[in-house]
């Protein structure tokens, strides 16, 4: 082996060693940041409905099914938390259509969002859920009717409900449900932290801690 070739090979080994070290540093030093970014993206999407101040420092992400009784039971609890922290907390809703017919209910809500009637229609569907959301035999015509009473332009909405845009929203949320291993509704995350001990008081306590932490840092 010539001296020139030996020098070239040595230099090549050094380059690969440096590259390998850089790769390991990136894996160890930055991979966790990248993973956290991907998790954050899978929790909150640009299309996700937001209730509360958009720039609030504390975000409750709720994976919810419009036909879920527990989601209905938690709805006033979450509303009270938002009322108690009007400047500090926002709610981001993610669609989790586990029940038969829930995908249609999601489409109703999405058409309401495009018409600027999301909250009134959401409240109407939650209030009347026992009347239209019987498991195994949902009456979606009633759901449309209650949405109309809440101000939805139903004829226009029904023409938009199966649009590619709304279908993409539904598909993305279903993908994020799987990515975050959501198996029941409601499932809550507060500033990215899962609510591991499920319950109304546990949710309030987690939100309270995050609010206090945000206020300390401001």
Mean pLDDT: 86
Total DSSP E strands: 5
Q: Which class of secondary structure composition applies to the elements? A: alpha+beta
Strand content: 5-15%
Q: Can you identify the CATH superfamily of the largest domain? A: Glutaredoxin
Unreliable spans are 1-37
Helix content: 55-70%
**N-to-C series of helices and strands:** HEEHEHHHHHHEEH
Count every helix, treating DSSP H or I runs of 4 or more residues as helices: 9
Tell me the major beta sheet: 5 strands, mixed
Shape: globular
Q: Specify the CATH architecture of the largest domain.
A: 3-Layer(aba) Sandwich
Radius of gyration: 24 Å
CATH topology of the largest domain: Glutaredoxin
Please tell me the total number of domains: 2
User: What is the CATH class designation of the largest domain?
Assistant: Alpha Beta
Strand order of the largest sheet: 1-3-2-4-5
Task: Describe this structure as you would to a colleague.
This protein is α+β, with helices and mostly antiparallel strands and 218 residues long. It has two domains: 1-43; 50-217, Glutaredoxin. The chain is built from nine helices and five strands, in the order αββαβααααααββα. The protein has helices spanning 3-43, 69-84, 102-114, 118-127, 129-132, 140-149, 154-160, 164-179, 200-217, and strands at 50-51, 58-64, 89-95, 187-190, 193-194. A five-stranded mixed beta sheet has the order 1-3-2-4-5. Strand 4 (187-190) and strand 5 form a beta hairpin. Helix 3 runs parallel beside helix 6.
